[in-house]
Hints:
The protein is α/β, with parallel strands linked by helices. Helices cover 47% and strands 19% of the residues. The chain starts with 14 loop residues before the first strand and ends with a strand.
Amino acid sequence: MNAAAPAQSFAGRQALRVLIIDDEPVDRERCVRFIKQIPGVDSNVIGVETIAEADQQLRLGRFDCVITDYHLSDETGLDFAAKHHDDGDPPIILLTGNGSETVVLEALRTGVADYLIKSSLTANGLQRAIQNAVEKSDLRDSVRARNETIARANQTLQKRSNEIQRFYHTVSHELKTPLTAAREFISLVVDGVAGDINDQQREFLVHAVDCCDQLAMHFNDLVETARFETGKLQLQRRPGRIEKVVLRAVFSVSAQANDRGVTLLHHLPPELPDVYMDDGRILQVVANLLTNAIKFTEPGGRIELTVTRADADHVQVSVQDSGCGIEPEHLDHIFERLYQVPRAEEHATGGGLGLGLCIAKEIVELHGNRLQVTSKRGQGSTFYFSVPVAHPHLPNPEETFQ
């Protein structure tokens, strides 16, 4: 013979505590009887006649559900519901003598979980209403508890984020000063100010200067990232020539490209319009994209910087390389802070913190556009963005954006 299946709990409970408010003893006892008939549940039902007595019971203990008549000797059931509709209060079921639409609408506005007509009240109907009300209340409490947990976790994350930002500032400011001093002293030695040095010593010291410059660049990236996160980065946008910005960026990385053995080309069409930009920040973006392309392009490779008129309102800048490319699963993440593409370092020259593309993306977005990329593993990458044309009718020819 098969063993009997265990009885399912009622609304997730083996025990149920219900408060009934009704000044009619017959109706009150009928509700008690119906609740006691719930199978597999230890029901503790307390009946009172007035709202004052009900309030006292609620102060003494927790109830899973409250059933109240509409007409009471001291107040109405809706008066009671209006006082006890906050989070943490038990769900309320209203018993009415008739199905008046006005009473029903008022009950729903007050936050009553359900309403039942006394004349047609049955054990199944009452039990089903209690079960639904309790389950909804439990779900509401669960959601509230989860939201509170999320809020606390968010506060903790915000605190940690603030700590990280303060750390960025501390590291950059406290270490940048002695680093600058160290670089200057090394440069003096390289220049022979402290006496003659041989070629091997000069070579070692030049490498030391390069390392200082690389560290200074990383510190600057940390400060920039902190400025973005705190909203303290400011743009000075004004009409300017994109050609000048592009040529300055190409010049700044030419030596690096030559050392890497990479061909660097640029294409500038004639008669480009003025664009609306912070030229220093756009220079930073273009130089970053070129440096990144050089870093991940093998010797003998090719990089092309192209400026085109995207449409009547935008000029597009693109940097295309013949480097190692990026696998599809990484394309959505390369603009994230500190993200490094796995195994890309085997093709790269030089190091980085994974902040350059993140900073470039933020600068482009502050200009009202998006930094985008297309790439295939082993076939190179193309990074591109647009800047708005400076039309003569644009208001505020110089603006500050934060």
